[in-house]
Amino acid sequence: MSIASPAPPDVAPAVPARTSRRRADLLVTGIALVLAVWVTSGLWIDPNGRAIKVNSSDQALFEWLLSYGARAITHGENPFFTHLIGFPDGTNLAVNTSITVYAVLFAPLTFLLGAPVTFLVILTLNLVATAYAWYWLLSRHLVSARLAAAIGALFIAFAPSMVSHANAHLNWTAGWLVPIVVWRVLRLREGRWLRDGVLLGVLVAIAFSIAAEGLFFIALACLVFLGTWSLSRATRAEARAALPGVLRGLGVTAVVAFALLAYPIWMHFLGPQRFHGTGFDARVHSEDVAGYFAFPQRSLAGLAGLDTRLAPNETEENSFFGLPLVLLTIAAFWYLWRSAAPGRRATLRALGVTALVFTVLSWGPAVKIFKNYTDVPLPYALLNPLPVFNAALPQRLALVVTPIVGLLLALLVDARPRGRVWPVAFAVALVPILPVTLLTVAREPIPTFVTSGAWTSVVPPGGVMATVPFTLDTVPDGQRWQAYAWTHGQGEFHLVSGFYLGPGGPDGRGRIGPVPRYTDGMLYEVARSGVVPPIGPAEQAQARADLAYWQVDAVVLADRIHGAKWPVQHDALLTATRQLLGEGERVDDVWVWRVKG
């Protein structure tokens, strides 16, 4: 499959050519590193004291996953299931984003410097690796001009969607997986089906452990692209000749990937505490039609007040190319198509169809435009009830469009169009969406009660702690305390709640955290609203029953609590907890209510 004509043979000696290529590689990598550090610079100032403002909850979750993965290695624990959060029922990490490969590879760094530093290092390296992986694929296989490869790769790595997901998503910023998987899929047609199938199978296992939803999107995109390409008249014979080898290679891939993933796949679909489909509304989490023409918040245009805030939240600006870039992309397709040979047109057609399919699918089950929901049905309505689709967010399907836009930009630069209008068009389209730094906020410090190890005086080894309010996505401190205790050799305690996806949602779907009982539900509402409801003997008896169900050893309320979405009403919490459990005792900088003993 040829996208670009091969470069003419170099007349210079091979060694200088390799040196020139190496310098170009280092230059692109250096630019990517500078941009990545710039985007994440708010965290580099103080990795342990700062958090991503719009998504500190997901940051806390990934930090916990990194620390748990490191602990699973050293303690021989199950990396895909734990009772340490969501006690006593436990938590199925296989249906969550467990990022197992990252947790294992970076375990030494986690133990040495802590999970917040590991999180920041991985986030930064994800952006750099995405840029380099795309540059490598483009410069070695798809275009002849290194400038074209650099522009395409840097756009993809720092596109609005990637910067948006840099708000704490270690899975979605692992965009380096996409060009590597695509490259290995295309290699299957070359006839070495056994070797290439094994390599692709290992890569699939790695991708599944880092971003299972992303791997699903890659597979869908390859299916649409290769299916469209194979049906073109100019490439039909080539596709037919390659089909037997490709099928054999995919068979080997399936065997190898299944051998490596048999247990996590079983846990995902059949294991304890599983669920079928997330509890997120597909209509809410669909891409706004106008979002493709809007500017992202963390961009130069956003700083100028041109953003439209059409995404459900700042982490999900999955398209947001801006009108100038959309027009430039269409013009690039038209220019390339006009002068393309039949084989090249087959590739362009496949790119165009893939972009169109995923654009429409990203709009979800019904049209939404400028935040106005309509009843106009769309194809995703047929897919939403299906397995796997019901666990994905349709708006993220727009992520497939970004690499296609980058490819078209690279191909256009490689074609060297004449005229001054093209450089101006690139500037008008790309300058407004240049990324700016992510917003960060000071996170509440881990209490001395935890850092000093004083918690071991009120919770026995392997005991159960209940933080007030109970740990959830909006109040994630408990999991940070837990991660600190593990990575500093203090031991472990269980949490009765936690930020994770588990069963209990409507129609058998998932929900964040366990199904609430009276005590945790009431304290959560007090933390959010500051209103203490009437509490008498009946409520006190229910609290005692709830704590017995959870087997709680101690209830702990810190002086400073991090609210990921809203400020926590500390004084109201202290009043409510005292009315439920008694006066409590002071230990360092926390209030403690001993339940056992």
Automatic annotation (TrEMBL):
<feature type="transmembrane region" description="Helical">
    <location>
        <begin position="198"/>
        <end position="226"/>
    </location>
</feature>
<keyword id="KW-0808">Transferase</keyword>
<dbReference type="GO" id="GO:0016740">
    <property type="term" value="F:transferase activity"/>
</dbReference>
<feature type="transmembrane region" description="Helical">
    <location>
        <begin position="26"/>
        <end position="45"/>
    </location>
</feature>
<feature type="transmembrane region" description="Helical">
    <location>
        <begin position="424"/>
        <end position="442"/>
    </location>
</feature>
<dbReference type="InterPro" id="IPR046278">
    <property type="entry name" value="DUF6311"/>
</dbReference>
<protein>
    <submittedName>
        <fullName>Glycosyl transferase</fullName>
    </submittedName>
</protein>
<keyword id="KW-0812">Transmembrane</keyword>
<feature type="transmembrane region" description="Helical">
    <location>
        <begin position="393"/>
        <end position="412"/>
    </location>
</feature>
<keyword id="KW-1133">Transmembrane helix</keyword>
<feature type="transmembrane region" description="Helical">
    <location>
        <begin position="246"/>
        <end position="266"/>
    </location>
</feature>
<feature type="transmembrane region" description="Helical">
    <location>
        <begin position="143"/>
        <end position="163"/>
    </location>
</feature>
<keyword id="KW-0472">Membrane</keyword>
<feature type="transmembrane region" description="Helical">
    <location>
        <begin position="349"/>
        <end position="370"/>
    </location>
</feature>
<feature type="transmembrane region" description="Helical">
    <location>
        <begin position="319"/>
        <end position="337"/>
    </location>
</feature>
<dbReference type="Pfam" id="PF19830">
    <property type="entry name" value="DUF6311"/>
</dbReference>
<feature type="domain" description="DUF6311">
    <location>
        <begin position="78"/>
        <end position="430"/>
    </location>
</feature>
